[in-house]
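Schema walk-through. Below, the input block comes first and the output block second. Nothing else is stored per chain. Lengths vary across the set, and this one has 138 residues.
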Amino acid sequence: MSEIAGRTGLRAGASAVVNESYSFACMRCGHGWEQSYEIEHHTDATGHEFVLYVADGRVVPSPLSRPACHNCDGHVVRIMRPGRVASARDAAYGSRRVPPPAGPVEAPVPEAAVTRTPRVQHHWHLSDLLHAFQRKAS
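--- output ---
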């Protein structure tokens, strides 16, 4: 989820930058999206540490505090590891785009060509039927 970028591309005063990506899904409308953030670690003049979340070059609020849906502005948003939205889209729509695999096709065998074993007819006797009802001598 996170990747330390080191000291490259830091804003003034940032001591480190961590890159993190998240997947989001709105529980209200079903909209899903993914976003990557650069998390800049800073220290203010009094020595207190704070972080800035940067997305697409703009400082934004933390996506973990109160995320909002881009589609319906709902605040019931599930936060997941990166790639979950893309994998769900691929699963939902990918199977329709992929043609079935080609391979040898078996021709159906006509029923007349199938040899059937003749049924053995059993001739029942009355004693066979009554055998279940006979008592055994003890």
